[in-house]
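Title: Comparing notes on inverse folding

I've been comparing how different people in this forum approach sequence design from structure. To keep things fair, I'm posting one structure and asking everyone to reply with a full sequence. Here's the target:
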């Protein structure tokens, strides 16, 4: 049974890292690069696991973690972050913001994999059945940010072969 994961991360390197770590055929990963986009996706689709970076553009992963814990109680939550200067951030993520676990980057491959499988209640038989291979079998959906979509829209709008047509309905 496929497990749907929402990865909220802005760093391409971190996205690729998580993809490499969770390249098992059981996972379907959707990537959002902002809290707003993540909330829109959560409203439309069911996710089994949220993996969120602490520092997000115009937001904080702790706020998103709390939001998901309050509004989607069946969704497990892992917060990831660069090495933190304060150790209490790890405890804060779990005790105050509803996260199930916290990992520092770079992610420890085996520990991260094991924790994801534990949180999603995936039996060992399924893990062995779809054993990790060198092939990437995870479906990864990268959804562009609003800023990226706006930039594409501006390029199209300014192309001479795409004239702007105004329709007057009066």
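Reply #1:
Here's my take.
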């Amino acid at each position: 049974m496929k497990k749907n994961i929402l990865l909220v991360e802005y760093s391409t390197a971190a996205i690729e890292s998580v993809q490499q770590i969770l390249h098992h055929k059981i996972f379907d990963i959707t990537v959002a690069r902002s809290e707003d986009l993540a909330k829109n996706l959560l409203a439309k689709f069911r996710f089994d696991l949220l993996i969120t970076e602490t520092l997000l553009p115009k937001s904080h992963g702790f706020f998103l973690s709390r939001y998901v814990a309050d509004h989607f109680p069946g969704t497990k939550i892992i917060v990831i972050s660069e090495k933190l200067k304060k150790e209490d951030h790890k405890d804060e993520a779990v005790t105050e913001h509803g996260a199930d676990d916290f990992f520092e980057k770079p992610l420890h491959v085996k520990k991260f994999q094991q924790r994801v499988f534990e949180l999603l209640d995936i039996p060992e038989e399924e893990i062995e059945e779809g054993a990790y291979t060198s092939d990437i079998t995870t479906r990864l959906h990268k959804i562009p940010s609003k800023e990226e979509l706006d930039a594409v829209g501006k390029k199209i709008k300014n192309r001479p072969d795409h004239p702007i047509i105004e329709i007057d309905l009066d």
